[in-house]
Write a structure and sequence with these properties.
about 120 residues; about 40% helix; elongated
Length: about 120
């Protein structure tokens, strides 16, 4: 009886982890559900301006409502490019050598910025 209970608990944990990973991918474009969860807690719960939740294959930043991507990119040495992005919710930044495409979405509680190199 004990072995059956242990197997059921393990199956429930595995299914829960798979569901959390799928939710994290769909909602935040982040493979690690723990990173996304802790990032959201930092941004919403502790009034951090932003937190980086993924660096590879592209950078994902979760931010609070007071975060401004223009200031962040200026600190990193980038400025808005003259090139027009193809989709709404996208903007291109450049430092002369590299161009970065930033896909963003925001609501009243947090913002998500996905930064890809062009």
């Amino acid at each position: 009886m004990k072995k059956i209970v242990i197997k059921i608990v393990i199956c429930i944990c595995i299914i829960g982890f798979i569901c959390a990973t799928i939710f994290s991918l769909v909602k935040f474009d982040v493979w690690n559900p723990f990173s996304a969860c802790f990032g959201m807690l930092k941004v919403i719960g502790r009034d951090n301006k932003y937190t980086i939740v993924q660096n590879f294959p592209y950078k994902v930043i979760l931010s609070g409502p007071t975060f401004h991507i223009d200031e962040y990119m200026k600190e990193k040495g980038y400025e808005k490019s003259q090139k027009e992005a193809e989709e709404p919710g996208e903007v291109i930044y450049t430092n002369g050598d590299k161009d970065l495409l930033i896909e963003y979405s925001m609501n009243g509680y947090y913002g998500r910025y996905k930064i890809k190199e062009l």
